[in-house]
């Protein structure tokens, strides 16, 4: 097993100001062995994440703790936008790197002070996000490592994603239901992000934590994967897997990985299959508050095969019938392939992207045909009006989202005002 350890440079000031130094603790996965290169399994390269990180680390900004404290008004709870298993996320604003121009809105994750595990996650995130670059992966602006009076502080500064996560839009009833077409676009973007990690780099990256809450959405609902704390470099050439301690999120981790600790890109493919069923059903992979037979999503959907009549019964009722059943069946079939028991039988993410592109293209054509026939058959207008088409649904949903965002701005404005009032109240 390989892991990295953080080495503090005692010659530096108390507030760490340079790139984190990363050292391999065990060389078993690296030394003298050849890596699988992106272009061909025959070509090899000696470079791994630490080398690539060395090359690209200069792109990352190193923030002082006081800069980030200032950016978040001392980590004010009114600026807290989320909380995960490893820390809290705040909205903040920082100065541009050259000091000129408007402040940049960012998301700042402050890891809990829980010692080695938190630190390992932070190192992995800095390393992987420092190396990768893709429109479907969240951008890391920089980080902060400060060992001061307040103890060990580890923070990450990301681009701000204004539309929360896929998890919020699929499962939180406070948001309008996500239209079918938008679900398909989001899942395609997420698949492209994963395919890039698996095949688009000099090294292979296994993400290990694919789930709806790690799919963040930008102002146009374009998805970006976040959270690289559990990411691992893929196996070296000649090996089939990486051996690791089993980590991830219950309900998403592949059973073969849980059983053996053998991690491959196909473990991500399994998690992707779980999320496909989540977008079809609008249910989480695990819901304890449901009747026993419905608690585990994958067990429940097995009773409703994609080619059966009763398949319709599992489709998210919040879609209010505004989806294409033919497309939903194809998505379920793809999910079943991703969820095959034997990891090697699952498709590669690049094949999943291909299939999704085809499914979406077919679905658009189908929508165009039905739109044309809808327009040309104004004969039975009362009947037609009972079948609102998908495009209209997406438009009306977009209008509702814009309205909601406007309301959000007011709420934010109000909390900012509350915050300023609190600040003023503190002034003696
Ligand atoms: N770059 C970002 N821009 C905007 N919001 C973000 C950003 N990163 C995280 N968030 C918000 O913070 C929440 C918490 O994120 P975090 O990754 O810490 O936890 P999680 O994904 O919910 O759970 P887990 O710790 O299991 O991954 C996210 O769900 C999202 O709403
Ligand atoms: Mg997360």
Automatic annotation (TrEMBL):
Q: Does the keyword DNA repair apply?
A: no
Fetch the Pfam families from UniProt: PK_Tyr_Ser-Thr
Q: Which domain of life is it from?
A: Eukaryota
Alphabetically ordered keywords of this record: ATP-binding, Cell membrane, Kinase, Membrane, Nucleotide-binding, Serine/threonine-protein kinase, Transferase
Protein kinase domain mapped to chain residues: 75-360
Where in the cell is the protein located? Cell membrane
Annotated region Disordered: where?
8-43, 364-397
Q: Which residues cross the membrane?
A: none
> Where along this sequence does the record place binding of ATP?
110
Q: Supply the CDD domains for this chain.
A: STKc_IRAK
Does Endoplasmic reticulum count among this protein's keywords? Answer: no
Stretches of Polar residues bias are at 28-43
The text of the family note is: Belongs to the protein kinase superfamily.
Q: What is the protein's name according to its record?
A: Protein kinase domain-containing protein
Q: Which organism is it from?
A: Hevea brasiliensis
């Amino acid at each position: 097993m390989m892991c990295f350890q953080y080495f503090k440079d005692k010659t530096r000031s108390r507030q760490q100001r340079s790139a984190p130094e990363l050292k391999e603790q065990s060389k078993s996965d690296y030394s003298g062995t050849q890596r699988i290169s992106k272009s061909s399994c025959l070509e090899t390269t000696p470079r791994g994440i630490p080398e690539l990180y060395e090359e690209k680390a200069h792109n990352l900004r190193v923030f002082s703790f006081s800069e980030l404290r200032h950016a978040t008004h001392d980590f004010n709870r009114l600026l807290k936008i989320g909380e995960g298993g490893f820390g809290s996320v705040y909205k903040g604003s920082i100065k541009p790197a050259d000091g000129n121009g408007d402040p940049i809105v960012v998301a700042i994750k402050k890891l809990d002070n829980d010692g080695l595990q938190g630190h390992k996650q932070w190192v992995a995130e800095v390393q992987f996000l420092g190396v990768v670059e893709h429109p479907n992966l969240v951008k890391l602006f920089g980080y902060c490592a400060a060992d001061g009076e307040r103890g060990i502080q580890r923070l990450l500064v990301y681009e701000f994603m204004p539309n929360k996560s896929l998890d919020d839009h699929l499962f939180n009833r406070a948001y309008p239901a996500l239209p079918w077409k938008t679900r398909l676009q989001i899942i395609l973007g997420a698949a492209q992000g994963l395919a890039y990690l698996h095949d688009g780099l000099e090294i292979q990256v296994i993400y290990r934590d694919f789930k709806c809450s790690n799919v963040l959405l930008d102002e146009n609902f374009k998805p970006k994967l976040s959270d690289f704390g559990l990411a691992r470099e893929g196996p070296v050439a000649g090996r089939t897997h990486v051996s690791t301690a089993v980590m991830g999120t219950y309900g998403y981790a592949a059973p073969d990985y849980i059983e053996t600790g053998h991690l491959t890109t196909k473990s991500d493919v399994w998690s992707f299959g779980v999320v496909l069923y989540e977008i079809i059903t609008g249910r989480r992979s695990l819901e304890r508050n449901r009747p026993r037979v419905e608690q585990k999503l994958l067990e429940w959907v097995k009773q409703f095969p994609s080619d059966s009549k009763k398949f319709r019964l599992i489709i998210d009722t919040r879609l209010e019938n505004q989806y294409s059943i033919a497309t939903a069946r194809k998505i379920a079939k793809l999910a079943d392939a991703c969820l095959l028991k034997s990891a090697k039988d699952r498709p590669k993410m690049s094949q999943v992207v291909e299939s999704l592109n085809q499914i979406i293209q077919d679905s658009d054509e189908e929508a165009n045909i039905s739109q044309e026939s809808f327009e040309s058959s104004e004969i039975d207008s009362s009947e037609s009006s009972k079948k609102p088409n998908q495009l209209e649904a997406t438009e009306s949903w977009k209008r509702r989202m814009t309205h909601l965002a406007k309301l959000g701005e007011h709420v934010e404005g109000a909390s900012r005002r509350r915050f300023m009032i609190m600040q003023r109240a503190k002034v003696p």
